[in-house]
Specification:
The protein is α+β, with helices and mostly antiparallel strands. 30% of the residues lie in helices and 28% in strands. Helix 3 packs antiparallel against helix 9 and helix 5 runs parallel beside helix 9. The longest helix has 107 residues.
Length: 1783
């Protein structure tokens, strides 16, 4: 009784604890809930056809099968004409595709020319396809194809030919293609040419080899050179003759007598050194003669003009040298100021960084203390949980005892009830007693306090997490500051180098100045000499003056003898005339020479004013000629004086009787004297004038220098203010973050102190605690830990140890096909012939209950046994051909494989002495119907070596643990490792020594190759330690991969890089060694070498002469590219991938959009023919040795709706056939598998989400379940003589074989079968999704999973990735919940979708829209878009307009915007006044950004040097401040210009045009190419830091979508429409056809409206297409309900035909029509056409307000004429022209 009473006393406490635990569990459940969700797709039943089928005119009855020639049998039953452009008369029924094209044409409609032909296949003669003239048509055509460009024919030559018209041979080949009958043949130099060259070097016409190496000679380098003997062609061992320099036999080496040497056949005779010396002597002698002639010629040149030109040049040199020196001085001062400011800034930054580092260490210490206290709290909680378990056990024991005693006393029910009543009274009494009541209240209070403490602890934990999350931000900012400091240090070093260079140049300039000063002094001395000479000339003129005075006296006496002179007058007159002519010439020559001297003096004066021309040699020559020039001037002055004296003497001799002539000579002499005096005066003043002019120029230069210095100081101050402000702002943010972290840490410490005190009371008062929720959370967290990089190292097991491994592979992928390989090394057996190896357990993979659904490996009876169970019984496959005791004492390879119900076990035993291997195989098969290993990811374990003590193995595997060494290799396609374990038991992996690997032949070959799993990479540092960069730099590597994309090689040095990638299966090389024109891209555009075929390919990268990059694959030239000469600037190389911080850098992000590490095998990496062992490199991460075959097999394929794969194999699909495969899809329809033999067809397809198997017309259909849910499903098909059977997952369906009992044996032959679609089955749509793990029963080999890589035909199929995600409905439902449950392995291993938008490195977020999703549509009505980013450029005037801006930006304005484009021209931003006199614009011109605005009547233009149309996001800031402008791009490029300020007021009024301008705008100020709309995305427009978001008008602008785009016009949910131009108006008779892909089930498609109320309206409503017409009498309409939903994500064709009052509607060949009332007075008014929507103002009361269409429209045709929306009359709203999101 007492015990019973005690139990009832404890029971309320137990219930109270249970309630508390349930609440705690519910709280934990909010953190780790079990999210059980599902999705369903509603199938649409086919509506009964209400329209009677009729045969249209010209159609055939159903029984007809053939049409006449030139026609084909269409699906509609009509015979339609073939559209073959007159080049064929035959086409395929159903599709109309042309066959047997003639006239050298090809294509689906014979519309193209065959390869090697050119012309117009459509227009016909005389432009029909003709052979390419490459170089000659017909007779000498060496082109693979050709095309026409700019009126000229361009040839794509065959491999052996080159040139625009293939008129010459390619390098490495010889011949003359222009000669009829001649071809290009490969050079043959017997292997004795330069091995560093790709091609053998020979004459391009004759083929004679050049540069024979290895001591060879001859036309083909086929024999040894003279003085050498041996075999030049095969052995290549030409050695020096041992004949003391004498001749020898070229083959045997026998010495020959002098003069008896056989002819060598060399092209040139041997020339002795003596002759070379004499030739050189002759050349030198001729050169000396030439020099003498040149010297004499120079000396004979007139010294007048040439000498002055020399003086002119040296004076110009002096002046320019002064200018340059001034500029250098300015630069030196500027650099000095910049360095001082940079030093100050660096000191400030260093102090701030040190302060931040100190605070960071304090925060770290405090957080560590808080973490320690939290861990103590957790330990206390764990102890409380253990105490609670003890209490629970005691209560259970009390309960058991109570039941025992109750049964032992055998009490009657009445007695028991009495005792219960008594116990209840006792319990009530106990409760009423004060101590118990007090304790109960205390317990309740403690419980409440415990919950409060728990909530506080959770809040403190969240605060701690928030604080801890701030650490990466602070660290990242510190890293940024560190990087900036490094950049600053580099800039300082560079500035220091510049300063040193400037100082060197200053010293050199100072030395030159001293030299020029000395020369100037010499010139002054010579000028003094010239002045002295002139004075002497003046003195010499005094003698003619005296003579003139004497002449005056003679004139006075002349009258006395006049009569005597008169007698001889005639004779004297004759003599006088002769003398007069002679005197006049001489005087004129003197005058002319004086003028020349004057001009030369003037030139000398002018040339002294300038002082610099480049050319130091010329300066030296000029200086050396100064003395000679001055001497020449003096001699010329003396000659002038002598000529004057001679003239005077002649006049004196002839003066008697010549009065008039005397007077003339007197005047001329006076003029000459005055000119000589002027020359002397000018010569005296020229030096002073030159010095004064030079002083004035130097003063002006100093003034300009001062002005420039002031401007530079102002610019530096502004720049420093900007940078310092930014730095201070960031430092302030860091300080705030640090202060917040300190505050949070203090709060945590303050909160932790009472929490520690409360925990003591908590542990004493809490009586019950259920830790199941805690354990569940720990297990979930452990399961969520991602798989580590596989470590391929063995573990040693001792029989007691075991390891639980992460499977890594998706469990769903193991259901159909399971392949597990490992390495085993059992311990040696002392007497194997007596006992053999003991029975041992090796591994187990399966369910936790171990009753069914598992596979394992064991050793039984000295045999290796493979065991698997598919649900009912075990299948054991013993490998009895090789007992375990006979295995060698090193590792052997074991592989287990299961395909459906078929199993195999393989054993490979290597050899110690050779690469030979022993191989053993044993097969088995499950006898039941199951074919799937149906494992649940939550209920699957993987044990190796043994199992824990609490796990019970199945009977077939319940054996002692393994003793020996094991190493895991692969599970399906994934590399796995024992060290990627969940738990280990009885083993310390850090102390357990793995088994040593023997150096076997096969392991050595494995070590020569390396496996990269997609996350690993190798790093080779300082590659130049084993080879140097030379004239030829070469990298070699062999790769083997099935992947479409991957990084092979990467080298990085700052902004310079080199990358070798695989893109879509072909190689792509990008590199930039600091080229001025940016990176160079070299890719296999001709698709010569596909890499992703799972075969080894040898890749060579050759860099020749520092200017040519060459790509060679499998020793075949693929492509080469020239670049500007630049050496390779790298020392380190990344192989197979790189760390994320490298791949995510800004430099590589632009040129490496994939950033996908390599997955596959590599070997033979060489640099300059030197091998590198990648496993020995210290930084190599995750690279394994060997090349696992399983990792290279393509067992899955992704189909995009346009693709398929095909193979020809020997399979009988109609007799005793079994096969199966996995599939995943989101599409309800598609062809999965197809095979046809004559009229017999075997197919598996999806229809409305269900699976249908069709065998010879007998269809077996799955249940109503929808399988297009994005999950993995498995199909098994079997065909037997009695039954056709289809199994989908676990659902079994079947049908009897109608041919049962008939003797019909089909012969298995090789015919083509298809996966994913078929080009010969137009009745099926191609499949979109994944197919994997396919297998067949074959006649020619065992059952195995299909390797799709081996298939002969692969069309647009990816054999590596499978980007199928969960159903959109499923994701939408899941997103609405606040679940934080970790993702399952299914979601984690899906792989990256090709079409899914990748993470934008700039940090853009995708737009979340609140538009409700149309449940009937497969595609979302709001494609994924970037927040606040919009797409422009659909039309020429696509734009947004912004009115009513609050701020005035007349004086100063700063705009910022983000842009992304691939267009080269287009308007980005424009604003102006009404007359467009004042304006501001930002636009693209030739890919460069241009910022332009007016300053008065002038235009200021700032243009970037680099192009920004690279498809990436760029930040642009453009600032106008009065007459100055600044353009800042990505925060790195700062461009600034200014114009002289004007007093004019700059007045601007809205609107602001973004993305384009209104028609007619901006033409006045911007070039016409850039006036049209910008094509690309714009985001985040800001004015002076404030966002501008609300546009007043929008024209053809849509959100900027992420993901793939295709051709079409997109109408978004915001609404919009297109108005076609007047040429496409519709009237009483028309035909409109177009294709749609809707994203909503309702919306207006087409609308036409006239002024008198007549209209035509085509719209969708709940999936139906409706046409409403009003012809002036009344409304009439028709509709079509398509069998296939229009909202299934595919394109659908709609045709509307009107002929007066008859309207016909055709939707995907579903036709309906209506006949309306006949209007007796019809008016054929041409109505404008609205597409995609219509303004509500045009809707009549009879038409409900039309909901705008959401989706894409393309191929819009009216009356047979295509409509271009880009030329529409109006595009209004959010409409994207010619760009449609594909998903």
């Amino acid at each position: 009784m007492a015990l019973s009473s005690a139990w009832y006393a404890v029971l309320p406490l137990w219930l109270l604890w249970g309630a508390a635990c349930s609440r705690a569990a519910s709280g934990d459940e909010s953190a780790f809930p079990f999210d059980i969700e599902g999705s369903s797709a509603v199938g649409q039943l086919d509506l009964p056809e209400t329209i009677e089928a009729r045969v249209a005119p010209g159609s055939l009855p159903p029984a007809a099968k053939k049409c006449d020639a030139g026609f084909f049998f269409a699906q509609s039953g009509e015979c339609l004409p073939c559209d073959c452009n007159g080049n064929s008369n035959e086409c395929l029924d159903g599709s109309g595709l042309c066959v047997h094209c003639q006239r050298n044409t090809t294509g689906e409609h014979c519309e193209k020319c065959l390869d090697g032909y050119i012309g117009d296949a459509i227009r016909g003669a005389p432009r029909i396809c003709q052979p390419c003239a490459c170089p000659l048509p017909h007779v000498a055509n060496f082109a693979e194809s050709c095309y026409r460009k700019n009126g000229a024919v361009r040839c794509i030559c065959k491999e052996n030919y080159a040139g625009p018209n293939c008129e010459r041979c390619a390098p490495g080949y010889y011949g003359n293609p222009l000669l009829i009958g001649s071809t290009c043949k490969k050079c043959d130099c017997s292997g004795n040419s330069d091995p560093n060259l790709i091609f053998e070097d020979c004459d391009e016409v004759t083929g004679q080899c050049r540069n024979c190496l290895r001591n060879t000679t001859g036309f083909k380098c086929e024999r040894c050179a003279p003085g050498y003997y041996g075999d030049a062609m095969r052995a290549k061992n030409c050695a020096v003759c041992s004949c003391g320099g004498g001749p020898c036999d070229s083959v045997t080496g026998e010495c020959l007598e002098e003069g008896s040497e056989p002819p060598t056949g060399m092209d040139c005779p041997t020339i002795s050194c003596d002759k070379c010396i004499w030739d050189l002597t002759d050349d030198l002698r001729l050169a000396a003669l030439s020099i003498e002639e040149s010297k004499s010629g120079l000396l004979s040149v007139s010294s007048g003009a040439a000498a002055h030109r020399h003086v002119n040049e040296i004076n110009s040199t002096i002046y320019l040298l002064k200018t340059k020196l001034s500029e250098r001085e300015n630069q030196y001062v500027l650099r000095k100021i910049q360095i001082t400011n940079a030093e100050n800034t660096m000191k400030s930054l260093l102090s701030d960084v040190e302060e931040l580092a100190g605070r960071e260490s304090q925060v770290t210490r405090k957080s560590q203390l808080a973490q320690k206290e939290s861990m103590d709290t957790i330990n206390h909680a764990t102890q409380l949980a253990e105490q609670a378990h003890d209490v629970r056990d005691k209560i259970q024991e009390i309960n058991n005892k109570m039941l025992y005693y109750g049964e032992d006393q055998e009490l009657s029910p009445e007695e028991i009830s009495e005792k219960l009543v008594l116990a209840q009274k006792m319990l009530e009494e106990i409760r009423r007693r004060q101590p118990f009541l007090t304790q109960r209240e205390l317990v309740d209070e403690e419980a409440d306090e415990a919950y409060e403490l728990l909530s506080q602890a959770e809040s403190w934990q969240r605060q701690y997490n928030d604080t801890h999350s701030l650490f990466p931000v602070v660290l990242e900012q510190l890293d940024d500051y560190n990087a900036k400091l490094s950049d600053l240090q580099e800039s300082l070093d560079l500035a220091l180098d510049h300063i040193r260079d400037a100082e060197d140049m200053n010293r050199a300039t100072a030395a030159r100045q001293r030299d020029h000063k000395k020369q100037h002094d010499r010139v002054r001395e010579q000028m003094a000499g010239v002045n002295a000479s002139l004075r002497m000339s003046s003195d010499s003129l005094t003698m003619p003056q005296l003579t003139l005075s004497e002449l005056d006296d003679i004139i006075k006496n002349a009258s006395g003898i006049y009569a005597e002179i008169d007698g001889a007058k005639n004779e004297l007159q004759r003599k006088l005339s002769n003398l007069s002519n002679l005197s006049h010439d001489l005087v004129q020559e003197a005058v002319d020479h004086a003028q020349n001297l004057q001009q030369e003096a003037d030139e000398l004066s002018r040339n002294l004013h300038s002082s610099d021309v480049n050319g130091l040699v010329q300066k030296a020559l000029d200086a050396s000629n100064v003395y000679e020039n001055i001497a020449n001037y003096v001699s010329e002055a003396n000659e002038m004086a002598e000529q004057a004296l001679n003239i005077t003497d002649r006049i004196y001799d002839a003066v008697s009787g010549i009065d008039t002539q005397i007077i003339y000579h007197k005047d001329e002499s006076e003029n000459l004297l005055s000119q000589a005096r002027e020359l002397q005066a000018r010569a005296n003043s020229s030096n002073n004038e030159a010095v004064a002019d030079t002083s004035r120029r130097v003063g002006g230069a100093l003034a300009r220098k001062s002005t420039l210095k002031n401007r530079l100081n102002d610019a530096i101050k502004r720049l420093q203010a900007t940078e310092r402000g930014d730095a201070h702002q960031r430092l302030g943010q860091s300080k705030l973050i640090t202060a917040e972290a300190n505050k949070t840490t203090v709060e945590v410490q303050q909160a932790a102190a009472p929490m520690t005190n409360s925990l003591t009371n908590w542990s004493q008062n809490l009586q019950q605690f259920d830790s199941s929720a805690y354990n569940t959370a720990v297990d979930s967290a452990r399961d969520a830990v991602p798989s580590v990089i596989p470590i391929q190292v063995s573990m040693m097991f001792d029989g007691q140890s075991s390891v639980e491994v992460h499977p890594k592979a998706r469990i769903d992928d193991l259901k159909t096909f399971t392949s597990l390989s490992l390495y085993m090394k059992p311990p040696p057996v002392k007497q194997p012939e007596l006992s053999g190896t003991a029975d041992q357990f090796v591994l187990y993979l399966g369910s936790k209950n171990a009753k069914k659904e598992y596979m394992g490996l064991a050793i039984k009876n000295d045999n290796l046994v493979y065991v698997y169970n598919l649900g009912t019984k075990d299948v054991e496959i013993p490998l009895d051909s090789k007992p375990v005791s006979s295995w060698p004492a090193y590792f052997s390879i074991v592989k287990m494989e299961r395909v459906g119900k078929h199993g195999k076990v393989f054993l490979t035993v290597p050899s110690l002495s050779s690469t030979a291997e022993e191989k053993f195989i044993k097969k088995g098969e499950f006898a039941g119907d199951d074919s799937l290993l149906d494992l649940d990811p939550e209920d699957t374990v993987f044990y190796v070596g043994g199992v824990p003590s609490n796990f019970k193995l199945p009977a077939s595997l319940n054996l002692p643990g393994f003793v020996g060494c094991l190493e895991l290799a692969t599970l399906n396609n994934d590399v796995i490792s024992l060290y990627n374990f969940k738990h280990i038991y009885n083993m310390d992996p850090s102390k357990s020594v793995p088994c040593a690997r023997d150096k076997l032949a096969f392991t050595q070959s494995r070590a020569a190759s390396y496996f990269f799993d997609g996350s690993s990479y190798a790093v080779v540092r300082d590659i130049t330690r084993r080879g140097k960069f030379g004239q030829v730099t070469r990298f070699d590597i062999e790769v083997r991969t099935p992947a479409d994309n991957g990084l092979v090689l990467l080298m990085v040095n700052g902004s310079m890089f080199f990358s070798l990638e695989i893109r879509n299966g072909y190689l792509h090389v990008s590199y930039d060694f600091g080229f001025s024109n940016g990176p160079v891209h070299l890719e296999d555009t001709m698709k010569k070498a596909q890499i992703n075929d799972a075969k080894y390919h040898e890749i060579s990268i050759i860099y020749h002469n520092d200017k040519k990059m060459i790509l060679v694959v499998d020793r075949r030239h693929v492509k080469s590219m020239d670049n500007e000469k630049m050496k390779v600037p790298f020392t380190d190389i990344y192989i197979g991938g790189a760390p994320p911080e490298i791949l995510e850098s800004r430099t590589l992000r632009v040129h490496l959009p994939l950033d996908i590490n390599f997955r596959g095998c590599m070997k033979g990496f060489q640099f300059q023919k030197k091998d590198f062992n990648l496993l020995e490199q210290t930084e190599t991460l995750g690279v394994g040795y060997g090349c696992p075959e399983d990792s290279l097999i393509s067992r899955r394929a992704y189909f995009d709706g346009q693709s398929f794969i095909a193979s020809i194999q020997k399979i009988s699909f109609f007799d005793g056939f079994e096969g199966g495969f996995n599939f995943r899809t989101l599409q309800p329809n598609g062809l999965l598998f197809y095979y046809a033999s004559g009229s017999d067809v075997f197919s598996i397809s999806l229809k409305n989400g269900t699976v249908i198997m069709d065998v010879k017309g007998i269809k077996v259909q799955s249940a109503d379940k929808q399988y297009n849910d994005g999950l993995s499903h498995f199909i098994i098909t079997s065909v037997s003589p009695a039954r056709y059977e289809l199994i989908v997952d676990k659902s079994r369906l079947g049908s009897k074989n109608p041919t049962k009992g008939k003797v019909e044996q089909t012969q298995a032959d090789e015919k083509k079968f298809y996966f994913g679609g078929s080009p010969i089955s137009p009745q099926y749509a191609n499949f979109t999704g994944c197919i994997s793990n396919a297998y067949f029963t074959r006649l020619d080999r065992d059952v195995e999973v299909e390797d799709f890589q081996r298939y002969s035909e692969k069309v647009h199929t990816s054999l590596y990735e499978c980007p199928i995600e969960s159903s959109p409905l499923f994701l939408l439902h899941k997103k609405g919940k606040t679940s934080s449950k970790p993702e399952t392995s299914q979601n984690k291993k899906e792989g990256k979708s090709k079409d899914a938008p990748s993470w934008d490195p700039i940090g853009l977020k995708f737009l979340e829209r609140n538009v409700p999703r149309d449940s009937h549509c497969h595609l979302s009505n709001s494609p994924r878009a970037i927040e606040h980013a919009y797409q422009y450029g659909g039309t020429a005037n696509s734009r947004q307009e912004f009115e009513h801006l609050k701020e005035d930006f007349g004086e100063k304005s700063q705009f910022s915007i983000r842009l992304k484009t691939r267009s080269s021209h287009g308007m980005i931003f424009y604003v102006s006044d009404q007359e467009e006199n004042d304006f501001m614009a930002l636009f693209l011109a030739h890919g460069r950004l241009v910022f332009m605005f007016n300053v008065g009547h002038k235009k200021l233009k700032i243009r970037s040097q680099e192009k920004y149309n690279d498809g990436l996001w760029h930040d642009v800031i453009f600032i106008r401040e009065k007459s100055s402008g600044r353009l800042i791009i990505d925060g790195l490029r700062v461009l600034e210009e200014s114009l002289p300020p004007t007093g004019a007021t700059w007045k601007i009024k809205g609107p602001i045009y973004l993305g384009g301008v209104a028609p007619g705008k901006a033409v006045k100020n911007v070039q016409i190419n850039s006036v049209y709309s910008f094509s690309g995305c714009l985001s985040n427009l800001q004015l002076n830091g404030a966002s501008i978001t609300s546009a007043s008008q929008t024209f053809s602008v849509t959100p900027c979508f992420e993901g793939p785009m295709e051709t079409g016009t997109y109408f978004s949910t915001e609404g919009g429409y297109v108005v076609l131009d007047e040429s496409f108006n519709i009237g009483l008779k028309f035909e409109i056809a177009f294709e749609v892909r809707p994203r909503s089930s309702s919306g207006t498609l087409v609308h036409g409206h006239s002024v008198n109320g007549e209209y035509l309206n085509v719209h969708m409503k709940n999936g139906q297409v409706i046409v409403k017409v009003n012809n002036g009498i009344r409304d009439f309409s028709t509709l079509v309900t398509p069998k296939q939903s229009l909202c299934d994500g595919r394109w659908h064709r709609i045709t509307v035909i009107r002929d007066s009052n008859v309207v016909q509607l055709d939707v995907d060949s579903e036709v309906n029509h209506v006949v309306g009332p006949l209007n007796p007075k019809p008016v054929d008014q041409r109505e404008p056409v609205f597409v995609g929507g219509v303004p509500e103002s045009l809707l009549t009361p009879r038409l409900a307000p039309g909901r705008p269409f959401t989706g894409c429209i393309r191929h819009f045709v009216i009356d047979g004429r295509p409509v271009s929306f880009s030329k529409a009359a109006l595009v209004s709203g959010a409409v994207s022209i010619n760009s449609c999101p594909a998903a």
